[in-house]
Amino acid sequence: MKPKQTFRGAVIKPGTRPAGESFGTSLGALLGPSLGKPVPNPASGPSAQDVKDARVRVGREVAGRGGKGVSVITGLPLNAAGLEALATQLKKTCGAGGVARDGRIEIQGDHRDRLVAELIKLGYDAKRSGG
User: Fold this and answer.
1) What is the torsional sign of CA 120, 46, 88, 101?
2) Quick one: 119 exposed, middle or buried, by C-beta within 10 A (0-12, 13-18, 19+)?
3) Predicted confidence band at 44 (pLDDT cuts at 50, 70, 90)?
4) CA angle, 59 then 64 then 68, to 5°
5) Alpha-carbon gap, residue 33 to 82, rounded angstroms
6) Which pTM was predicted?
7) Which of 53, 82, 124, 130 is the most buried (most CB within 10 A)?
């Protein structure tokens, strides 16, 4: 007779796992405390000094897009998560689509003036680049 508690053909015996432990193992449990490096907090944004010293440029590109122009923001001192959050906010401000990739934000259409004004409002020293 087959045991009642099975998982993909493997018998799971009751009481073999401590309560609350999942089947997987966390990376911290695998690597242990021997790493000694502090884990960066992804939720923390850039410091005020980083924002002040950043050379944020807002330009326009049409290359490789079939003649369609996009506004490109470069020089932001943000990690990938922060860049994605800022891109979402700027896309809503402009009412356009866009993407955050390769350390820069691309917003569809020519919204350079609006983007510069919004970035200055957020505390960045943003300037318009190009023609």
Assistant:
1) positive
2) buried
3) low
4) 65
5) 28
6) 0.62
7) 124
